[in-house]
Amino acid sequence: MIEAISDFWMNRPPALLWGLAGVFTALTLGAIMAAILPRLRPGGDYRNLQLRVNSWWAMAALLSGALLGGWPAMTALFALVSFLALKEFLSLAPTPREDRLLILAAYLTIPVSYAFVAADIYMFYLVFVPVYVFMAVPTAMAMIGQTHDYLPRASVFHFAVVTCVYNLGYVALLMRVPDWEAPQAGPAGLVFMLLLATEGNDVAQYVTGKLFGRRKILPKVSPNKTWEGFLGGWILTAALIVLVGPKLTPFEGVGLWTLAITLPLAGFAGDVTMSAVKRDIGVKDTSAFIPGHGGVLDRADSLVFTAPLFFHLLALFHVQTY
Amino acid sequence: MGWLRLLLLVLIARPLARIIAGADVYGREHLPLKGPAIVVANHNSHVDTLLMLSIFPARALPRVRPAAAADYFLANPVVGWFSRHVIGIVPVERKKGGAGTDVLAPAREALAQGDIVLIYPEGTRGDASDRLQPLKTGVARLAAAFPEAPVIPAWIAGAGRVLPKGETVPVPLNCSVHVGPPLRWSGDKDAFMEEVRAALERLHAQAPPLRWSEAEDT
Question: Whose CA is closest to A125, among A112, A138, A134?
Fold first, then answer.
């Protein structure tokens, strides 16, 4: 029993274990800060901070479990994340009553898309949502016989499925990269790097924005975002990728620098795109599912854009399988 | 039987409600944990009851009793058994009103026992148009009979999209439940009903917008 447990840990890539240890150390520091801040500066409202920190623990525990558990765990976890995100999106989007069964059908893209991940059929994954779901949805709508607002309605479905199912699914797909293609820390190292850089970028943008933010970058879409936060996040995240990337992933040279420069931009783009959608719909958060953070889609908005970019740069520069 | 109901509600109804309706609850602190208390909510779907039963903490659940139409829920023995013993309904004999029968007797009895009675004062499910239908005054009569019982308003947003009246297949979509501060029986039926309606409309205004429209008015 004890041997089995120690074998399990010995067989995990050391770089990944160090990375996870780093994340949990940071979370512990965060929890200590959240506990002592109210005593240092009494009077402020720290309930939200504590909720946020607690939710980070829960999310880190779930993701670490999936990273250590391998591709089946990660596929199951992200199928669930896709379901929750798609449910949030379709709940907020303008969808007429006639499209009820179409909404139900949109959920069916999740098992199909993730089945291609599980079966490791990259080619099918690649075209299923963007090509075939793209054709099926408007066809089904035409069959129902409703032509009112036809194009906007079809677009809502396509936007929802591509962002919540297809783009997020790339995280699970990364776990299918063969071990020999990523000898540094295996496929889990790839996913860990993606998540660390994406969430790190969110945090770095927020912190540098709070500290130095002066000039608004997109006042019409996201009034709290500043140029200082955007640039601070970009520089810090790029530095993180250049420093940590080679330890966890096969990224090096031109590939590494391309990733370092473009990933923070993609994260920012995902964030403001989802903000624009929320502004259009008239809500602040996509739901209250994650205490202190809002909805699943609020938390995963940057990942929606960074996950495919990370995968494609990896495939382009360093992996022969794809 | 009580333990079976609690198990089914906590282990099956609650996760099911989270998955298909994922309710965000606002104003949870206003939910009554002991009776006698009356909860009034808008009604568009069978999902309403599932949601309401899923947001109470387990220790309050044995006390929560949804008022439901006897002519609908007790018409068939299987549904009737399920309604009585799992949902824990308080039957309301809608059709016997005015015939000299006290249709609210079971609800009064429940309140006298210290239960939390959940009432949909619209009387029946609305058409999911997200508008509050005219309210029946039974809730005022109950409040008058138990003036010490708080009346807690709750607005359920989105359940009518998950499973509208007349449909059989539920579609997973997020709902939210907005619970307001308790009202007290004021001594006047019309004024009290107006207070209930105003409280429900206030909660309605807090709910996120529902973009669920008939094709004609999109």
Answer: A112
**Of the candidates A93, A107, A288, which has its C-beta nearest B24's C-beta?**
A288
Q: What is the pLDDT of residues B123-152, one digit of tens each?
A: 888 776 678 888 888 889 889 899 999 999
Q: What are B83's two structure tokens?
A: 């309604």
> Residue A298 corresponds to which tokens in the numbers above?
């609020």
Cβ contact A217:A225 at 8 Å: yes
CB A34 within 8 A of CB A50: yes
- CA of residue A134 relative to chain centroid, distance: 22
Contact in structure between A290 and A59 (CB atoms under 8 Å)? yes
Measured distance CA(B143)–CA(B43) in Å, rounded: 20
Backbone phi, psi, residue A294, to 5°: 105, -140
CA angle A228, A229, A231 (to 5 degrees): 65
Asked if B68 and B107 count as a contact pair (C-beta separation under 8 A), the reply is no
**A93 contacts in B (CB within 8 Å)?**
211
The pair of structure tokens assigned to A31 is 């929890």
The DSSP result for A127-175, as a single string, is HIIIIIIHHHHHHHHHHHT--TTHHHHHHHHHHHHIIIIIIHHHHHHHT
The 3-state DSSP class for residue B132 equals coil
Q: What are B3-42's pLDDT values in tens digits?
A: 888 888 888 888 888 888 887 899 999 999 987 999 999 9
End-to-end Cα, chain A, rounded Å: 39
Check if the interface score ipTM surpasses 0.95. Answer: no
User: Which residue from A88, A92, A100 is facing B171, i.e. has the nearest CB?
Assistant: A100
* Half-sphere exposure in the Cβ direction for B23 (13 Å, CA): 30
pTM: 0.89
CA distance A129 to chain B (A): 20
In A169-309, which ranges are E strands?
A: none
Q: In the numeric block, which tokens belong to residue A55?
A: 């939710």
* Bond into B36 cis (ω within 30): yes
Do residue B173 and residue A103 have CB atoms under 8 angstroms apart? Answer: yes
A186 close to A16: Cβ distance less than 8 angstroms = yes
Structural contact between residues A88 and A160, judged by C-beta atoms closer than 8 angstroms: no
Tracing tokens 């297949």 back to the chain, one arrives at B169
Q: In the prediction, which pLDDT does B75 show?
A: 81
Contact A192, A16 (CB under 8 A): yes
Asked if B164 lies within 8 A of A97 by C-beta distance, the reply is yes
